[in-house]
Amino acid sequence: MNLSNDIVTFLSAMTEASSLFIAAAGLTLVFGAMRIINIAHGSFFMYGAFLAAMIVGATAGRRFWLALIVAPVVVAGIGAAVEMGVLRRIYRRDHLVQLVATYAIFLILADLALKFWGTTPRSASAPSGLAGSVVIGSSQFPTYDLFSIGMAILVGGALWAMLQRTTLGWRIRAAVEDRETLAASGTNVPLLSTGVFTIGALLAGLGGALAAPLQSVAPGLDATIIVEAFIVAVIGGLGSVAGAAIGAVLIGLFDTIGTIWVPQWASAFIYLAMIAVLAVRPWGLLGAPER
Asked: Are 258 and 271 in contact (CB under 8 A)?
């Protein structure tokens, strides 16, 4: 057994898990605080990736740091507009209405992306400082992949600090428990909802921008990521950011192991992982049964 190869395999799984976690964290945060299943979250991820690829262009990654800031901020602005223009009007409607509304937004944003960026796949180069590899025993591992893993850890830590150590985090957690009581205490719940949705969109845009140097950026990325992000969120428990982290790690490991062992069936492994978890805990690993 080659230990260095095992380490590289594990890190490859964590690289996949990193962008998945950032995307799923935004999705589960929005559901936890607002009880909205946002299909358009996949569009926000794709827009972040396209914007990053557009900003970086053919500059060999020299504008990457700019893209890493601008893309998530622009996507956050789009998310805020969607929340104030559409979702705020349907909070008290049936979940099916909310699901159909976010799916309609998903389709609209997909068409707009086609008109603006076309069908040609794009890519973004990593900055020169992250373009090499690190040596792990007899193997090598891309430096940018390590950066992506580090960013996911940083985002997870920042989300934990926000939710546990700030007034905004207290209000978000209170909104999960009892929105009516929170509103009666004087909190502007509609403004809080806009803020939470904007943060969710920001995380999706950041995940897309980080993933742009790792994969081809093309139409259809929105559908792929929303399915995977939902699987991660469901495994971890909708509403749990820590659960999203565990779910992302599990999916990254299952997908990587499936690719190595039975590549023709690799895509089925993540669904098997979800089925196995839900058979034991229908509300997810760290989720709670709906009251």
From this structure: no
Residue 183, helix vs strand vs coil: helix
User: What pLDDT, on the 0 to 100 scale, is given for residue 195?
Assistant: 93
- Supply the Cα-derived Rg of the chain in whole angstroms: 19
DSSP result, 61-85: TTTHHHHHHHHHHHHHHHHHHHHHH
CA angle 164, 282, 9 (to 5 degrees): 75
* Structural contact between residues 235 and 17, judged by C-beta atoms closer than 8 angstroms: no
Tokens 């509103």 -> residue: 183
Would you say the pTM of this structure is higher than 0.90? yes
Among candidate residues 198, 216, 222, 25, the one with its CA nearest the CA of residue 106: 222
The pLDDT, as a whole number, for residue 85 is: 92
CA angle 88, 44, 257 (to 5 degrees): 125
Residue keyed to tokens 């790792």: 214
CA dihedral (62, 64, 69, 75) positive or negative: positive
Give pLDDT < 50 ranges for the chain. none
Give the Cα separation of 199 and 182 in Å (integer).
20
CA 128, 131, 136, 138 dihedral sign is: negative
- Any idea of the CA torsion for 96, 36, 239, 46, to the nearest 10 degrees? 110
The pLDDT value recorded for residue 181 is: 81
pLDDT of residue 61: 66
8 Å CB contact between 61 and 144: no
State the pLDDT at residue 290. Answer: 63
